[in-house]
Amino acid sequence: MSDTQIELAGTLLLATPSLRDGIFDRSVILLADHSAEDGALGLILNQPTGHEVGHFLHKPEFEALARIPVHVGGPVSREQLTFSAFWWNPNDGLHWQMRLPAKEAIVRTKQPGVIVRAFIGYSGWTGGQLENELRRQSWIPAKPGPDLLGKPHDEDLWADILKNMSPYHRLLVDAPPEPGLN
């Protein structure tokens, strides 16, 4: 099978140590859309800003969203705050909705099992770019498990997912950030 036929939407991309500098260091990205020809987009799940929506949106109509944590979604369009919803269906896995209007995000917050997050920016790739990065082994693809939404979406998520993949991946988690300095 050629890489143009691989369907990656719904996959988690875990940054390898080769991406240790910059925004993608130890990142876990939910790849929300993918086409080898058109490119891909996703959201970094594990980079909370330490802020909530209420720090940015002060109008009364946003009050129901005020306590939702804001994450850095990636380096593209960092001037925009968007909402996304995530839920798990036992029959067919992880589901998501990106770029929700605030009114719909409010509705989603009231639905059992749905997690709503706010994101500043998103991660994007042009056609063929992600496939090249995968060939260079910059990313480790992984299927999300049913426990993903119950885990904290913070800097520990990367290690938590990797350590359970294989002994090799456990070594990546335990390796010092700069092995050459030891």
The level 1 CATH classification is Alpha Beta
Q: Label the CATH architecture.
A: 3-Layer(aba) Sandwich
**Uncertain parts:** none
Number of strands: 9
CATH superfamily (homologous) name:
VC0467-like
User: What is the overall pLDDT average?
Assistant: 90
The separation of the N and C termini measures 41 Å
Strand content: 35-45%
Helix share, percent: 10-25%
Topology:
Blueprint: E1 12-15, E2 28-35, E3 39-44, E4 48-52, E5 69-72, E6 76-89, E7 93-100, H1 102-109, E8 115-125, H2 129-135, E9 139-142, H3 157-162, H4 167-174
Parallel strand pairs: 5-8
Antiparallel strand pairs: 1-2, 1-9, 2-3, 3-8, 4-5, 6-7, 6-8
Structure description:
The chain has 182 residues and is α+β, with helices and mostly antiparallel strands. It has one domain: VC0467-like (3-Layer(aba) Sandwich), CATH 3.40.1740.10. The chain contains four helices and nine strands; from the N terminus they run E-E-E-E-E-E-E-H-E-H-E-H-H. The mean pLDDT is 90.
